[in-house]
Amino acid sequence: MQAGEERLVAALGQWRRPGVVLVAALAAAVREAVLDGRLRTGGRLPAERRLAAALGVSRGTVVAALTELREGGWVRTRQGSASTLRLPPPLAEPIAPVSASGAMGVIDLRRAVPAAPQEAFHAAMLRVCEQAGPVLAEDGEPGPGLASLRSLIARRYTGQGLATLPEQILITSGARAAFALLCAYLRPRVAAVESPTFFDVLSLLRGAGSTAITVAPFGVGSQGWDLDQLADAFAAARGGLAYLTPDFHNPTGALMTVSARRTVAELAARERITLIADETLRELDLRADPAPPPRIGGAVLIGSASKTLWGGLRIGWVRGPASLIGRLGAHPLCGPLSAAPTQQLLAVELLAGLEPLLVRRRAELRRRRDHLAGLLAGDERWHFALPQGGLALWLRLSGARADEVAAAMGREGVSLTPGPRFAADATLIHHLRVPYTPALPALERVAAALAAAC
Predict the structure, then answer these.
(1) Which residues contact 34 (CB under 8 A, 6 or more apart)?
(2) Burial class (CB in 10 A: 0-12, 13-18, 19+), 378
(3) pLDDT tens per residue across span 242-262
(4) Number of folded domains that form the chain
């Protein structure tokens, strides 16, 4: 056995499965090894006879398995050349991560997150390797962020109509780290939050420092924010903080109107509230002519690359007054919550070329949103409003409990997050978040599982 065959056999491991025909088991093992990184895309496969001998199967089994892989886009064979491994186009430039694509049998949509744009990442990583010398020569100690990244983000804000200097930007290891640092610094007694809201925010508030925080919720639905409830919550949180997602709210997808933004700013000033606006979904505007509304005056802004690029790129930031950024940078938790310099270099390369990628992603997300909405429309067992942006539909089930529906769908291989996870008070028992990031066949399976569960 030659080295190539030995490496492939080792990568596949114990690939035979009781009760599974050899062809299907071999093809599945190759797919899993590619996804797991044990087999490299672009790597050449041994000739069929040598591969069959190495695996201890007939050549016919190898030929049939390669045919299945070739038809699925996992293997490319050119006349007179060896077969090479590849990722199928839907996985090579996916919107949904593999865990949410159904490629491995299960569709896990408990996190509404995109997959990485692999070609853009590969190219950016090569450029980083060529340019990293000056950064690698430094001590690597955390600080407010690389000057190049802070300047780039400040220019983006300025270009969008909000004049910003680099010293108004602090880089963190993601949006959650940004919010955790703000909570640790502000140590609020009361926090006003939306209901529903992103569940990780509730966990961070409850665990902020040693202070037991009272959470004052205010309602938001697909049609917008309840400003009367918001005013009551802000009054209860006087002197504390408020957390909002005004742009394509997670999970409802609602977009706050300009007049509502003015009201929120006025209420925050009156009640001396530190207003934190999470903008991680702001770039995912799925309208035909995206036109982001003006930002809420006086708000401290949180941004991130997780929803536009990839959650694994642990880059977030805080945009606020330079005095606040300076105090956050001096906080003991700033270092542990900072982003690695090499990640920041990668973010510089990717964010500098973000617009063409965003155009493609918005178009594909719009197509998938409309497809899922078409599958679910007109069924009296649930209701929803078509969101203008974001990554998910927010369904209100007509009679069924969301936890029971989610459990039934889980038994069919589709995992969703029920509404109570998004509520500070465990309400929203008839709501369900359904991300539309997967490809169309997977969305059809999600719709079928939902119909069966209801």
Answers:
(1) 41, 74, 85, 87
(2) exposed
(3) 999 999 999 999 999 999 999
(4) 3
